[in-house]
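Hi Prof. W.,

I finally got the Reverse transcriptase prediction working! I wasn't sure whether to trim anything, so I left the full sequence exactly as given:
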Amino acid sequence: MSLPVTSWKRFARELHDGRIEQICILSDVERVTCEAEELNQLISEGADALSAKSKKERFDEQGWDSLKERPFYKVLREYKDVLPDDIPAELPQDKGVQHEIDLVPGTKYCVTRQWPLPREQVKAIDDFFESRRNAGQ
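And this is what came out:
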């Protein structure tokens, strides 16, 4: 018995669209298990070495010596006192902190401007925030 051959793109599209309801994979369990164990071993051994190597390479690529040929090198050296001495090899871990500022009802909004606004514009802004406060937002 021979089954029709389908492309991965068509398979994925039909699976996503719901035209394929069930999949049955027939394989040699012992061979698949052995290959999976070998792959797991390669991944666990190689990932640590690879990540350490790639981190070191990335760090070296970001050093001062690698920037010497760049046109902005002189500007960077001029402002090196505000740049970190150690360039991190990766972004810091996300701590999940999000900041929100809640205005207390009746509090005036913060205005930093270089010149005074016309009275009608100030009134329009005040009316806007007052309507938001009254609406419970």
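The radius of gyration is 30 Å. Does that look reasonable to you?

Thanks,
D.
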